[in-house]
């Protein structure tokens, strides 16, 4: 049996909907009970707070309005990405993101928000010209929001690195969106490189092959202009002309 189908048995279908529901429940309970927990750090695994590893993926905010907006945006973009990647790949994308963030907390104060931010980056990368309405008023393309958000993350990491005199904080955001790089950026760059090589190869074959059509007046062929039409003149004997000269030439009877 294909390994992919074996792994499919352990995946969660409609993972975005499941995560949205869990985040709603966990954060609403925190808001109702007025509970606030410290940011998760990998060192907590060796303390009595180890159990927080099971809840940190779902803790986002203690502000109700921010929570509602976040859940809607994640539900929208998460389902888009889940349909794009498929169940197995999307599960790997999300759960590997959790693992990378747990490791990243050793270098930089990260939380599960980065996993969901990587979903946003993925949509901005895959659908750069898709427009959303900022503040429900201003239309702006996803690629610009993604670029500005990325610059903001890098700026914060660099400022922290300068404050403590270490480059380790820079590793935090890198690990925070590493799933985005692995599952979205690198495969697409590889595909683009392959397409470029394929186009170059086709152009080489095209240069070496003989043209099928050639205008008897200007000598233009389909290799010079792939969109050009070529026709035989009914009054000429076996002579072909491009669209520009089909009705603009002296007839050849020989």
Question: How would you describe this protein?
Answer:
The protein is mostly helical. The protein folds into two domains: 3-200, no CATH class; 210-254, no CATH class. It has helices at residues 3-8, 15-32, 64-85, 87-104, 113-126, 142-164, 168-176, 178-208, and strands at residues 131-134, 138-141, 230-232, 240-242. Strands 1-2 form a two-stranded antiparallel sheet. The chain has a two-stranded antiparallel sheet with strand order 3-4.
How would you summarize this macromolecular structure in one to three sentences?
This protein has helices spanning 3-8, 15-32, 64-85, 87-104, 113-126, 142-164, 168-176, 178-208, and strands at residues 131-134, 138-141, 230-232, 240-242. It is mostly helical and 254 residues long. The termini are far apart.
């Amino acid at each position: 049996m294909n390994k992919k189908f074996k792994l499919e048995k352990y995946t969660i279908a409609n993972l975005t909907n499941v995560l949205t529901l869990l985040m709603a429940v966990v954060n609403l309970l925190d808001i109702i009970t007025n509970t606030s927990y410290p940011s998760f750090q990998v060192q907590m695994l060796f303390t009595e707070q180890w159990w927080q590893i099971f809840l940190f993926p779902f803790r986002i905010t203690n502000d109700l309005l921010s929570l509602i907006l976040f859940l809607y945006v994640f539900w929208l973009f998460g389902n888009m990405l889940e349909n794009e990647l498929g169940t197995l790949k999307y599960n790997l994308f999300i759960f590997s993101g959790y693992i990378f963030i747990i490791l990243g907390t050793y270098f930089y104060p990260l939380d599960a928000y980065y996993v969901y931010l990587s979903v946003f980056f993925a949509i901005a990368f895959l659908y750069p010209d898709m427009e959303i309405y900022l503040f429900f008023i201003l239309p702006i393309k996803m690629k610009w929001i993604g670029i500005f958000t990325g610059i903001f993350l890098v700026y914060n990491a660099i400022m922290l690195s300068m404050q403590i005199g270490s480059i380790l904080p820079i590793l935090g955001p890198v690990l925070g969106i590493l799933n985005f790089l692995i599952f979205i950026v690198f495969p697409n760059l590889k595909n683009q490189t392959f397409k470029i090589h394929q186009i170059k190869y086709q152009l080489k074959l095209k240069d070496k092959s003989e043209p099928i059509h050639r205008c008897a007046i200007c000598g233009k062929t389909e290799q010079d202009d792939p969109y050009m039409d070529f026709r035989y003149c009914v009054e000429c004997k076996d002579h072909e002309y491009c669209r520009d000269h089909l009705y603009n030439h002296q007839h050849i009877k020989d």
